[in-house]
Amino acid sequence: MNVTINDSWKSHLATEFNQPYFLSLAEFVKTEYKTHQCFPPGKEIFAAFDYCSFNDLKVVIIGQDPYHGVGQANGLCFSVHDGISHPPSLINIFKELEKDLGIPYPKSGNLSKWAKQGVLLLNATLTVRNSQAGSHQNRGWEQFTDTVISIISKEKEKVVFLLWGNYAKQKNKLIDITKHHVLTAGHPSPLSANRGLWFGNKHFSKTNFLLEQDGLLQIDWSL
């Protein structure tokens, strides 16, 4: 796996790419992509970093695993390519967006417009086998993405972290809450949303309020 990542991240992550765990992870991912159908496509594994530069970053949304259906994953958590049916979690995200800000339900599930405005759409695990959820967990990706969150916490300030669901909420321990904002809610998956843990969180309007309070440009959440 040749790591090609946005230049703005290189100085912050260069040493990580030479760590023994990452070299082992890279070999594992190379072999997996050669011997199985894996997602997202190789060139999109680091898309979250390519679309959202370190300098522009002001919001972080943490997912767990890439979508494992053909054509779905595009390297941004919860996002799918244009023309792909919206998975259930994304449907609930868009329903909340519509309730919160009155933004009409979008046709496209591609969230790259958010990423380009400084929203890091980070999955904890960046790759997966076709139809095998969680198949690349506990191979080193989580160590890498935990380091990313820690670096953001240490080297940035006034970032809004959106932690949706119990898995994402565990990342709270990596964040310095004295200089960042943390908003938590249930996961947007139907299981959680139907138990009343997702809808009504108003995270999109709350994020923009916090950004405005800190003198930063708000996110245009429309797609």
From TrEMBL:
- Swiss-Prot/TrEMBL GO biological process terms: base-excision repair, AP site formation via deaminated base removal
* InterPro entries linked to this entry: UDG_fam1, Ura-DNA_Glyclase_AS, Uracil-DNA_glycosylase-like, Uracil-DNA_glycosylase-like_sf
Q: Which UniProt keywords apply?
A: Cytoplasm, DNA damage, DNA repair, Glycosidase, Hydrolase
> Would the keyword Cytoplasm turn up in this protein's UniProt record?
yes
**SMART domains in the record, alphabetically?**
UDG (SM00986), UreE_C (SM00987)
Superkingdom as given in the UniProt entry:
Bacteria
Record domain Uracil-DNA glycosylase-like: where? 49-211
CC terms in the record's Gene Ontology section: cytoplasm
Kindly give the HAMAP family that the UniProt entry links to this protein.
Answer: UDG
What does the function comment of this entry state?
Answer: Excises uracil residues from the DNA which can arise as a result of misincorporation of dUMP residues by DNA polymerase or due to deamination of cytosine.
The name under which this protein is listed is Uracil-DNA glycosylase
- Organism equals Paucihalobacter ruber
Organism ancestry: Bacteria, Pseudomonadati, Bacteroidota, Flavobacteriia, Flavobacteriales
